[in-house]
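Input/output pair, single chain:
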Amino acid sequence: MAIITLVGEKLARPGFEFIYYGPAEPCKTCKLAGVCVGNLEPGRRYKILRVRSMPSHSCPLHEGKVRVVEVVEPSIEIAIEPRLAIAGSVIKVHFADCSDKEKESLFRPEGLFEGDHVKIIEVLDDVECDGKTYKVVKVMRKKD
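Output:
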């Protein structure tokens, strides 16, 4: 189900993804904060599905204007133990350790938290780190 929120006019396009890090100081007193930041969870990744054709609204953070958009949490790629990599299964996220900083986004992807329950959508590739082989899978977070 899509979530309604507001994003800066320059970012308001279908397919654009962002991480919500929490409200900025001016948001705490804004009359639109309930719809803008009240529907989003800090640390989560969101993808814009649709930009609504409603009028834009003034905003001191986004170079003047924000637009109403519909967002969802997109699928995220993560490296997991091969024994857990079964398409269609639901697993609890446990981040594996990897000393290779270039692969960090696969082992600790932004938008997922340790302990999240996710459904494995697709098994993609193998990735090696620190002498071990992991499976890269595409997952969707299961909301409680």
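The chain has a mean pLDDT of 93. The longest strand covers residues 117-129.
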